[in-house]
Amino acid sequence: MLQNVDVGRNRLDAYRATVGDEVLQDLRELAEPLAGARVLHVNATSYGGGVAEILRSEVPLMRDLGIVARWKTITGTEEFFAVTKAIHNALQGGTRGVTQAEWEIYEQTSARVAAQMEEPYDVVIVHDPQPLALPHLRGRGEARWIWRCHIDSSAPDPEVLARLMPLLDDYDASVYTLGSFAPPDVSHGRVEIIPPAIDPLSPKNIDLDEHLAVSIVDWIGVDVARPLLLQVSRFDHWKDPLGVIAAYRIVKRRMPDVQLALVGAMARDDPEGWQVYREISDAAADDPDIYLFTNLTGVGNIEVNAFQRHADVAIQKSLREGFGLVVSEATWKGTPVVAGRAGGIPLQLADGVGGYLVDSVEECAARVLDLLADPAAGRRLADAGRRRVLHRFLLPRLLGDELRLISDLLERHPGTPQALAAAGVSGEDRDPVCGMRVRPDSELQHAYHGQRFRFCSKSCAREFAANPQLFLRTASRAGA
Ligand code: UDP
């Protein structure tokens, strides 16, 4: 059996004060025809990282809407998760590759996992590469299959991609976070662009009184009277924790009072975590103003919430990134962000809202110093970022996008993957860069090779114009 994750309950009505009646009404209408549908989300870990964060919030809301939604995780040895992390890194452009012996481990565990999946489902949503082989090895059955890829796979290791591509033939649709994230020669079935979202009511993001936030950070042992920089992320080289320490050291030369907290989760499917933890610990050993906390020593959701509220600047110096939920989490709490120009981060910080995008340690330090010198400007940036999160990156929007896709797939004849990639739920106008729904009369348009594309913002229009080919592989139905 796959492991069932017990998610407790959540009520859609609780979101009314944040997103308004109309959004809730839309969700109820979308969900009505899906009442009783059996939807399974499968991933590799119930804690640590963005996918677990999203499913913990989304699955109970699906259930509140009458869908029989479940979340299950696959099990595997440390060896298996070392292989899947190598595949993850290769999809992100890492060059280490995956050996034949490692592929055999991947295939053996995948076969065992496939044999464990018993119940019938109407829709199975498979997250990331760890459970990717499930429909191939188990058979599609009556279900519609969706691969939800959270990784920027735009420049993958070609050999690793070539091994994974045949596994995608068994899927009805694959979903990427951004239009540019799909692999270069994606030719499997239908392709959707759906950015992730944060849950404004989860303990991680719920409103927390300023005094309470300060008390929590104080209790943990950080000096609340001195400036604080923060990075919250899995301990992963792509999140560049050593680069964050290097930027902090530059800042500290100008502002000796400054402190840095690195808060990192250990995820079950990420065996590199401890090694990176030790590297950070060594790098920080000579400086009592660098704090290192993990979910294993009690720094959980409420504590992360308090840190993200209390910090003067949230850093996310990623070199590669999926979406980077932590960016929206920080701006939602009114904290400006300095972040690497990677993956989904520019989407969250586009057009000068939320904070600054940086490309180097020096630039990171300079932007942090700017924000420390002018906190009022930082607050204005973060407020604009919060408005962006409200309109685009909250859970009800994500739920709506997924319900539309599920409805659309269930209306189709099973087992007929399309020959050509296609994006955009039928009948909808979508921005081919970020997947947002756009009004047909949007003035932000771009004509390319006889097709007209519409955009949600100037930054998306600019990004498309700079390199239309990057988005065309997922845009055949987004344009009209
Ligand atoms: N996170 C956490 N505690 C930690 C580190 C990370 O709760 O010590 C959470 C973080 O708040 C965010 C998620 O893990 O919700 C990370 O998601 P993101 O998309 O930023 O990165 P991923 O880990 O998926 O690459």
Can you walk through the features of this model?
The chain has 18 helices and 15 strands. The protein has helices spanning about 15-20, 20-30, 50-65, 80-90, 100-115, 135-140, 160-170, 210-220, 240-255, 275-285, 300-310, 325-330, 345-350, 360-375, 375-390, 395-410, 460-465, 470, and strands at about 5, 40-45, 70-75, 125, 145-150, 175, 190-195, 230, 260-265, 290-295, 315, 335-340, 355-360, 445-450, 450-455. The strands form 3 sheets. A 7-stranded mixed beta sheet has the order 1-3-2-4-5-6-7, with helices on one face. The chain has a 6-stranded parallel beta sheet with strand order 10-9-8-11-12-13, with helices on both faces. Strand 12 (about 335-340), helix 13 and strand 13 form a beta-alpha-beta unit. Helix 2 (about 20-30) runs parallel beside helix 16 (about 395-410), helix 8 (about 210-220) crosses helix 11 (about 300-310) and helix 12 (about 325-330) packs across helix 15 (about 375-390). The N and C termini lie far apart (about 45 Å).
